[in-house]
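Retro notes
What went well: the complex prediction finally ran end to end.
Inputs used:
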Amino acid sequence: MSSSALFADLYEFAMLRAYFELGMNAQATFSLFVRKLPPQRNFLIAAGLDDLLHEIEQLRFEPKHIDYLGSLKIASQPFLDWLADFRFSGDIYAMREGAPFFENEPILEVVAPIAEAQLIETLVLNQIGLQTILASKAARVVAAARGASVVDFGARRAQGMDAATKGARAFYIAGVESTSNVAAGQAYGLPLAGTMAHSFVEACASEMDAFQSFSEVFPDTTLLVDTYDTLEGVKKVVALAKARGPNFNIRAVRLDSGDLDMLSRQTRRILDDAGLTDVQIVASGGLEETRIDALTSGGAPIDVFGVGTDMAASSDAPTFDIAYKLTEYAGEGRMKLSAGKRSLPGRKQVFREFRDGVAVRDVIAREGEALPGVPLLQPFMLSGRRVAERSCDLPQMRNYAKEQLAALPAQLKALGSHARFDVAISDELASYERETRARLID
Amino acid sequence: MSSSALFADLYEFAMLRAYFELGMNAQATFSLFVRKLPPQRNFLIAAGLDDLLHEIEQLRFEPKHIDYLGSLKIASQPFLDWLADFRFSGDIYAMREGAPFFENEPILEVVAPIAEAQLIETLVLNQIGLQTILASKAARVVAAARGASVVDFGARRAQGMDAATKGARAFYIAGVESTSNVAAGQAYGLPLAGTMAHSFVEACASEMDAFQSFSEVFPDTTLLVDTYDTLEGVKKVVALAKARGPNFNIRAVRLDSGDLDMLSRQTRRILDDAGLTDVQIVASGGLEETRIDALTSGGAPIDVFGVGTDMAASSDAPTFDIAYKLTEYAGEGRMKLSAGKRSLPGRKQVFREFRDGVAVRDVIAREGEALPGVPLLQPFMLSGRRVAERSCDLPQMRNYAKEQLAALPAQLKALGSHARFDVAISDELASYERETRARLID
């Protein structure tokens, strides 16, 4: 696995060398924001901050990194010596993980000597981008499940191991119940879930043999019933219950193919007719929010949705236009004037206004303004160290996300809707933007 | 970063425990294949094998893994002791990295005691899936560039660090020239490329000041000209050339926004008029194969395409239906009969037939058959060790991919086409499938 110290675009190192040679070391502010929401999203969920802060706090160039950088023609010995002593010493302000946010809102601001803030650009974009995309997708899946549990089955279909493991964390923040990914369980203490695969059923002499032997080892397991014929599989579970009597403890059956609406109803009936009303139904196989919504809105008796591929890579919106832009250097506002690429100058704050418990408007303001509403950007790192009182655990983040999602207007959350939340720019920020633009055009 | 020993779905460990308790340790064959090509792909490019084999060869459970597994209720002490001694001892047959392949073709087969082959399922799917998806996307981008260079700028938009770094490798195999990702440069010895960011230009007192000072540090750099106004930026490069005279060595200018077709032509004219015919044009900003195709087919004078977001996550086809299925256990063919989920039983081989240097047909056969054409599955690991004579370096894989892509029928490679390659099943395999099905239905 690659080291995060070298996880940067080559041009970051080239610019660092230039800043070094030119003695450019004034304070800079960089803002992280999403320029445009994907058309399939009315809001996004911020995630990935704690992992990012951990990486930044630990960021060091070890001898093997320095040796490699020394082999590139952008390096010089004094610059390599400077890198060997590199520590991130800046401040980071951010929205809490689990916060819904909108277009052009700063979700994180880095205030640091320019080289330090520049070096972490690629890491910040990649890591906050990853978990934010995945948490935003999962929030839709969880909403579609209408209270049924959602389990992450996506490790095999995620884009790499980092995506799978950090994705499981992001999914949990967004309301997913548990993950099948053991590495994520270990890394983040997430609840694990899992059943059995078709290969186990196929390797045994018969399906009945597979059910019997697996449930001898794991009496309260979930049995996968669709390897050969789903309803025949369910009937074998019923037969097993009759044979076992009071020792029957199977918790659930899993349907992984076919018409899940019809099969779940037929399965429920067979189980209920046999008195197995406590045996739950787990459904999986190509599920995403629109299919889940169709199942739950129609009343399909499914207790748990196992969701893989589509959530694992946020297939309908796998990337977004996330940007990390210089907005202030040496005390002066900075911005691009490139076509279609607005960036708001200076340090900023976002105020969220609520009415009767419902979020009604965000205002992006200059840092230091005191406006109505809840300020969303808070210091999470000061002078290179994490702010202890801001640290919270994953269940707290998950609760925060749940509360904040509950407070969003209903039309934003309807699956197929294209609603926009009202995001305003404060008068002070608007006039600062005009001044900065005028200064740059001069 | 998570350890790959725990990078498995919980059910793999549950099944391993069951195999252990039940004494099921016969040889199994698992086949890796893509059930259905994404609608936007007529072929895929196999990639990720060498990284996977390395992980499998190294796979060990360390005390911290055993401790964690011991905390899960699926574990027992004898099972944990068995895991502590785990080594993969099986054989792996696979297509070479860079090979184009099609629906339902086995691209990798694992032959090992069932528990060993089962444990690596999640890892195999995730890792071969990742690089294969990304190489397959990059092949399209490279084709669209029609001989212009393609540089990977995607580290910031990839889904995680693993995706970014292994993606850079996969892109290189598929014909991308270089990457901006320094971690990938170090991990795989890939050529690096990079220029400067808008933040550098904005931090300097003026654009002219930025160009002067950056090119003093890096005389043969690429200057980013679109921070404020692209053509004004290009004129500043011309002014710099006049001021520097024979000491002017700027290699290229980069356009990152606006109408790249029009701007590249105007830029070329300004540069040529100033005698700067050697200064190249790099274009970037939201590029993917269809936009690149439009630019190159229209003759836009762009020498290098910097491609990020869309290639980094294969945005138009970010996942696919890749499966790893038990096809043989204890010498007998195995298969699912679930709706719509065909798997071909037994060990297999794929023969590719060529006519006049063009691939005309693949035949999926039983292992051991001798059919016309080139057999694509070769042993890459035997008894848990990599086969030395099969190892090859990235430039060799890249050349192989180039040759094999050149031999594909033209209609498969046309960007917007939906052509299908002829993939047949040998008579022997077809009758083995029928026999296996009949045996299972009995």
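What we learned: The radius of gyration of chain A is 26 Å.
What to try next: split runs per interface for comparison.
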